[in-house]
């Protein structure tokens, strides 16, 4: 074999390792994203794109389609107040499976129905 061919084989081997090693090192669970719409289907309701999610880090992308300002609170974290037609993001880590209640913390909103439960598996 020529030196060039050996060098080329070496490069291929390195490239394959570079591909294989991160795949082995990474956890199998990828981060999840859930879309949350506040003010839908009614002003004091949330609509989530998923009702359950695997435990780990979850990014909530919240859009307020209501006429009032709302926030989104879950597992001890919450967004700032989100004005109508605006959106916000909340990244939350769920270390273990369980049922996690979420709500809007604006006074009276949760009592009016702006709450629910996310199942974490
Ligand atoms: Cu609200």
Q: How would you characterize this protein structure?
A:
The protein contains 1 helix and 9 strands. By secondary structure, it is an alpha+beta fold. The protein has one domain: Immunoglobulin-like (Sandwich). A 5-stranded mixed β-sheet has the order 3-9-8-5-6, with no helix packed on it. Strands 2-1-4-7 form a 4-stranded mixed β-sheet, with no helix packed on it. A hairpin with a 7-residue loop joins strand 1 and strand 2. The mean pLDDT is 86. Copper (II) ion binds next to loops.
State the helical fraction.
Answer: 10-25%
Number of helices: 1
Q: CATH superfamily name?
A: Cupredoxins -  blue copper proteins
In whole angstroms, the N-to-C terminal distance is 54 Å
Count of discrete structural domains: 1
Question: Approximately what portion of the residues adopt beta-strand conformation?
Answer: 35-45%
The CATH architecture can be named as Sandwich
Bound molecules: copper (II) ion
Q: What is the CATH class?
A: Mainly Beta
N-to-C SSE string, H for helix and E for strand: HEEEEEEEEE
The total strand number stands at 9
Rg, rounded, reads 22 Å
Main beta sheet strand tally, sense and closure? 5 strands, mixed
What name is given to the CATH topology? Immunoglobulin-like
Q: Which strand order do you get reading across the main beta sheet? A: 3-9-8-5-6
Alpha-beta content class: alpha+beta
- On the 0 to 100 scale, the average pLDDT is 86
Residue runs with pLDDT of under 50 for 5 or more positions: none
> Any idea what the shape is?
globular
